[in-house]
Design goal:
Helices cover 44% and strands 16% of the residues. The chain is of the alpha/beta class. The protein has a single domain, classed as TIM Barrel, CATH 3.20.20.70. Strands 1-2-3-4-5-6-7-8 form an eight-stranded parallel barrel, surrounded by eight helices. Helix 3 links the parallel strand 2 and strand 3. It starts with 7 loop residues before the first helix and ends in a 9-residue tail after the last helix.
Length: 230
């Protein structure tokens, strides 16, 4: 089976341009925001410390500002995640990528998982922010992924996201297809983790993702047929 021909403009419009390394510098965020505008990316995803800066740099521009909550392992207390979310909202984040407590899932504590999102979601949605939950699909079984889709769709999230990029594996076509099959149409999918080529990004979009989270956005869309508007 041949790989799909990448639609570079469509891919660009789906990218959450990401910089979450521990050693991130102010210069990195300035570059990230410039590139997001220049290439028409959907959003930038930055560490919580840089939300205010990114918001200022992107004022009046199309890309949204996303940040992470409970990143990267998801096992911080619900109260800690709530505090992170509130601070991100105050600082101006448009979208919150929340790492779920997949340790609880692996221990079959679905009551904890439901309680966590039911405590977080009302506060965030009251501020009209987009909520993406990161389920870390590479460490979950198919059955656990399906249960997550059912639980988080019922809770009212906007996106279910495959990965943090810090686990043993990242996004996969199989996981995205499984998620799309088990999510209602109004819940979107963000594929992230290990996405470094236009071909793979296109496969994930074709499988049902509508956002692509990656730090290789510029390399992905820099092709002979893609010319960035200045």
């Amino acid at each position: 089976m041949s790989s799909p021909i990448p639609d570079l403009k469509k891919i660009a419009a789906a990218i959450d341009h990401t910089q979450l390394k521990p050693g991130t510098l102010v210069h990195d965020i300035e570059k990230l925001c410039y590139e997001a505008v220049n290439y028409g990316f959907a959003a930038v995803c930055v560490p919580p410390l840089f939300v205010k800066l990114a918001k200022k740099l992107l004022e009046g521009q199309t890309p949204k500002v996303a940040t992470v909550i409970g990143f990267p392992f998801g096992y911080s207390a619900v109260e800690a995640k709530l505090s992170e979310a509130l601070l991100a909202i105050v600082d101006g984040a448009d979208e919150l990528d929340i790492v779920i407590n997949f340790t609880a899932i692996k221990n079959n504590d679905w009551a904890f998982v439901a309680n966590e999102i039911n405590n977080l979601l009302p506060v965030i949605k009251n501020s009209n922010k987009i909520v993406k939950v990161i389920i870390e699909s590479s460490v979950l079984t198919d059955d656990e992924i399906v249960k997550c889709c059912t639980l988080y769709a019922a809770a009212g999230v906007d996106f279910v996201k495959t990965s943090t990029g810090y686990a043993s594996g990242g996004a996969s076509v199989h996981a995205v297809e499984l998620m799309r099959k088990n999510l209602p149409p109004h819940v979107s999918i963000k594929a992230s983790g290990g996405i470094r080529t236009a071909e793979f990004a296109q496969q994930l979009l074709d499988a049902g993702a509508s956002r692509i989270g990656c730090s290789s956005g510029v390399a992905i869309v820099e092709g002979e047929t893609f010319n960035a508007a200045y």
